Amino acid sequence: MDGTRIDVPAGVTILDAADSAGIRIPTLCHHPDLRDAGVCRVCVVEVAGQRGLQAACTYPVTDGVAVRTGSLRVTQARRDVVDLLLAEQAGDCPACLRYGRCELHDLAAEVGAGGLDCPAPEPGRLVDLLGPSVAVDLNACIGCLRCVRACAEVQGIGVLGVVGRGPSTQVSTYGGLPLSQVSCIDCGQCVSHCPTGALQAVDGTADVLAALADPTKHVVIQTAPAPRAA
Ligand code: FES
């Protein structure tokens, strides 16, 4: 890796092999608590013999494979990915609860992203009170699915999922139901695993409960599909 021989057990990922040798590969959708999904592409590296860049967090090493983690092609691709994620952010960052603790912003500083000259999208995508304890601000969501995986893998609950496809993909509950109507246990794992301010803890005050009852503030993203006829 980067010209250094690394001995690791067969089958570990490039990311883990790099980590064992003290080589830093930036990540975003990766989290040590979670199984890797390879969705953000921030961790891309060059693998000898592969035409396209590969996600280090999901690519298993094989004997003798040569990897470049910091070539010009890799660093430019990584910066482009983070630039595009930043360009999707439509919220008011200084007002965000995670302002100053946002993993995306830390990552942008690390890879030198933030120089993309494009108009910011209009704020106003969905801010959905999923329940009395959790809200999702899709203006800040980067689609890393850490919340969905944390709900299923850390807590074993699995009430969060995604609806829609491509750019319309959104985090929601399965069936689009408020968390109060599914088996959410208010554990907060989705909030603590979110790298931005997209998943936020809210308190179950009267204001929040009133907002939940207000259909202009609580938007059901998608209703459950009708069961198929046998
Ligand atoms: Fe590897 Fe997101 S960290 S694809």
TrEMBL record:
Residues 132-162, 175-204 form the 4Fe-4S ferredoxin-type domain. Residues 1-73 form the 2Fe-2S ferredoxin-type domain. Residues 73-112 form the 4Fe-4S His(Cys)3-ligated-type domain. This is NADH-quinone oxidoreductase subunit G/[NiFe] hydrogenase diaphorase moiety small subunit. It comes from Cellulomonas humilata.
